[in-house]
Design brief:
This protein is an alpha/beta fold and 399 residues long. It is built from 12 helices and 23 strands. Strand 17 and strand 18 form a beta hairpin. Bound molecules: flavin-adenine dinucleotide (FAD). Flavin-adenine dinucleotide binds next to helix 1 and helix 2.
Length: 399
Amino acid sequence: MIRTDVEVVVVGAGPAGLATTVALATADPGIAQRMTVVDPSGGWLIDWHDRMARQGIRHLRSPITHHPHPDPLSLQRHCARVGLPHVMRDGRRLPTTAGFEHFVASVIAKHDLPGVVPAAAVDVAVSRDRVTVHLADGAVIACRRLIVATGIGRPRIPPGVSDDPRIRHAEAIDLRDLPPAGTRLLVVGGGLSAAHLVLGAASAGLPVTLALRGRFQVRHFDVDPGWMGPKYLRGFAAEPDRTRRRWAIAEARGGGTMPPWARQAIADLEREGAIDVLRNSPLVAADVGEQGLRVRLGAVEREVDEIWMATGFAQDVCANPLLARLSGRHTIPVHAGIPDLDDDLAWGGTPVHVVGSLAALVLGPTAGNLHGQRRGAHRVAKAVVPGFAPAEEVAHHLL
Ligand SMILES: Cc1cc2nc3c(=O)[nH]c(=O)nc-3n(C[C@H](O)[C@H](O)[C@H](O)COP(=O)(O)OP(=O)(O)OC[C@H]3O[C@@H](n4cnc5c(N)ncnc54)[C@H](O)[C@@H]3O)c2cc1C
């Protein structure tokens, strides 16, 4: 049976899906009752909370003003009201993971947001003003708008790395379930995820080697703060050439970076001899060795027992099953994995909007983090609810 009483379907209940749902509910308080949200996890931000717990992340990297609610100060006010502290790191005010989780729950309750249908969307078809969404459990929903918020891309594994259960991406690591004492561990990557993994494993006494492709790069946030305001976004928005925009995104994101506090913690461990750090040592091969895994890191060869790849995510719309289906029927240009969406994040004039990191050609290199997700959410809310003017827009003129 086809459900036809739905106005908006949101696919993906992570922070990007939540930011868009909250923006819509702010723009039109009655709309939440006419929305359906689907995600196989069956709840809001289940994957996010789970990832923070697995990687032992106790506070966010981004400042307390970055979150899924349209009012930038609402997280700070909420934490002060309920007595949950923030942390000060390198002179920045950052929300704790617990405070963020508490805030998210309060936003969902306050806006009476819909529960999450525990299913994956597997297909989408668009007619002139209707979108039909097919779920894995066989259900079919017809709606006026579809918001695709399905995440940050696929885990990036460098070429030359064998498929072996002892080689895992950071996303698959749970620091609460460490390998046995004495396991020789190699962590690959120079970003904050690598730092979290090294700190967690080293504190349990495991012998850890950290291998970086180049040298350490220190940055407070994942991209330069100039990308969160007019300093860089104005020029980006004025650039008509999508190839140049794609270069700007790649350049701004660069390789992995650590905030100063994490870099200092790694330096302390290295100085104490608790970890081994290999700089300028890209992982070029990892194969099954005599006892463990034989790895080649630049010119260095080693044997280790496990490899954790903190090598980030690749944005590739073709690897997104749902959007690949849509792309087969409504082709739009794609630049190195990122689709060329309309200014309101619509897919080639259809009523399908894409939020999160795949909206980077419109929103810039922060599209996939909390700040960019909120900017994307506001663009979509303005398209769905004409006349909506989020408070932040007045400050930045950039949404
Ligand atoms: C370790 C880590 C820490 C981070 N910390 C920060 C931070 O402090 N500040 C910041 O701004 N950013 C941070 N980020 C970046 C970014 O905010 C997160 O990656 C965030 O989770 C991205 O949100 P999202 O909603 O786009 O994707 P996700 O959180 O991945 O959510 C996507 C959802 O879509 C669902 N889904 C996928 N396919 C389907 C389908 N076919 N049907 C239905 N549902 C589907 C998934 O189950 C998932 O729940 C961090 C990222 C990582 C990896």
